[in-house]
Amino acid sequence: MAQITSDRIVQSKLSLKEVQNNVYLSTFLLGRLLQHKDKQLIVDCLTGCQWTGKELYEVCLSLADAFINEFDLNIGDTVCFWCPNSDVHSIAFLATIVSGATYVAIDLNYSLNDIRRVIKLSSAKFLICLSDNSRQALTLLKESTTLKHLFIIDGNTDDCVYEQINCNFLMQFMRYKYKPEADSLTKPVPIPVPVAATDICCMHFVKQTRDGVPNQLIPIIRTNANLIQSASQLHDSQILALTDDDCIVGQHFADYLGVVLFCHTLVSGTKIAFTNSYFTRQKALGFVGKYRITCASIDLSELLYMLRNDVDIHNYSKSSIDFSSLTDILHTGSPLPHSDCIVEEVFKKLCPKYFRSIYGTPETGVISCKWRVMATECVYVCPTSYFSVGYPVPGVQIKVIHPQTEKPRMANKIGEICVKSAQTIDKTRNLSVVTRNAFTIDGFYKTGDAGYYDSDGQLYVECRVNELIYEGQDVVNPQNIERLFKQHYAVKEAVVIGVDNTCGGQESDGQICCAFVELANKHTVVTGQTLKEFVATKGRELKGDVIFIDEIPLTYRSQVNRMALRVIYNNLHTYSLIEML
User: Fold this and answer.
1) What 3-state class would DSSP assign to 518?
2) What DSSP assignment string belongs to 429-496?
3) pLDDT digits (tens, 9 = 90+) for 357-404
4) CB 534 within 8 A of CB 491
5) In whole angstroms, what separates CA 193 from the centre of its chain?
6) Are 140 and 119 in contact (CB under 8 A)?
7) Cα 67-114-367 angle, rounded to 5 deg
8) Interatomic CA distance for residues 337 and 487, integer angstroms
9) What residue segments make up the domains of the chain, in order of their start?
10) Distance (Å, rounded) from C-alpha 184 to C-alpha 165?
């Protein structure tokens, strides 16, 4: 499935399907709509509306015509979407791309200040939102120097909102009659608007720590060529291989893979179902049986909800939901944790035929894919390779480098995962990303993920690069040591960080591992030395201290806050020095 070159680059043995370089996304997708003109391609689970390829084609051109001729949307303008996935949202997305504008989806969990920042950074001209957010959106419209028009995507709002200048009801323009031959009162603009393959068509925002400041919004800009390549890539038989009979539900478009998956369904002729992200999880899961959804693309949090909250299938649970049609579960987002045998739970409880994992980032697109098939024997046994994120997809090159020297690492040696492919963002379009030295000299993008590949070319993601510890000549994955601590009966949670190596009160080169431990019972009597000896019996020597803490600090995403632990360690270390003086 994969080959490792003499330069220690891992790549697929399968050839990449050819994609025309001079085609832009709108023409590419409109052609597929006509190709599947009689097939139902979209179903909105909330309203029950279903759309064929021909209907989507016609309403998309009509809305694009209105955007251009009624509201002066030009090539390069930006349209922000602050609303959940729906059939209208997807049509407006297509109309935006067909108009030559740039599409931006706003994460529904963003605060109003975050949304204000997205609008400013993207220089948005249109804002499309729900009626529930119309009053806040009007405030944004008045504050912004770039916003010119506000569109309400549903019709349930106060009459006073429609009386506002530059506020419109989007669906009324979906009935706008498209005129292929523009008259003298309209712009002679061809639709779809011709653009270059290297022009921007989509922008996603991610939160990153930049210059020590957490939760900074960083724009990830994707071109027509990037999205066409990603959408076509998923059609490979080794990744999705969806058919005309499938019906898939995916993530919100604020997730880069949500957009890619939607474009892919149009390419493959597969029906996609929109469940509306504002619905409760329980109601959304109920749509699986109603609309006979065969494939669900879900992130780790949604997967854990289905496994751990008594959401079972075939009427065996307290909250019976018919999942009998669901034969394929597609896991995206964060890699599966090594500590829990989730694969075993998925096959045992949800009984899919396939359980697949797609690994990728907004900057790189799809990197690798892992297939897991329900076997007739040993169904619930999880071999080590199940924690892999799979082999590289065709057209993707991967190498693992030493984070400090950037030298390529051999198999089974942990380092930073770097990627090069046609899906990867353009350096010239993403200056905010390039400024942090995100590319190697030979053009590989540094993902920031730490991992390794095995002798077969399968890729494993362990942690983030900034979590790695450089102990002497070794690159240490702290999670391996944390797992050993958690095997002790007294330990509830353990986190290992790298601290400066001090010898005789003076700093020396490198780091040592220091462990923070939260006990399962605060009344338990156990010493740090006892835990260090326990870990040593497992084959790992801990050179640093064991520090007991009442509760491990977490970020707003419920992840371990290692930065806070470093502050705690530094404070303890400072107090110790003061006492010595």
Assistant:
1) strand
2) G-HHHHTT--B-TTS-EEEEEEEEE-TT--EEEEEEGGG-EEETTEEE-HHHHHHHHHTSTTEEEEEE
3) 889 988 898 899 888 877 543 444 445 566 789 899 888 999 999 998
4) no
5) 29
6) yes
7) 80
8) 16
9) 3-11+393-465, 21-37+47-228+252-271, 469-580
10) 26
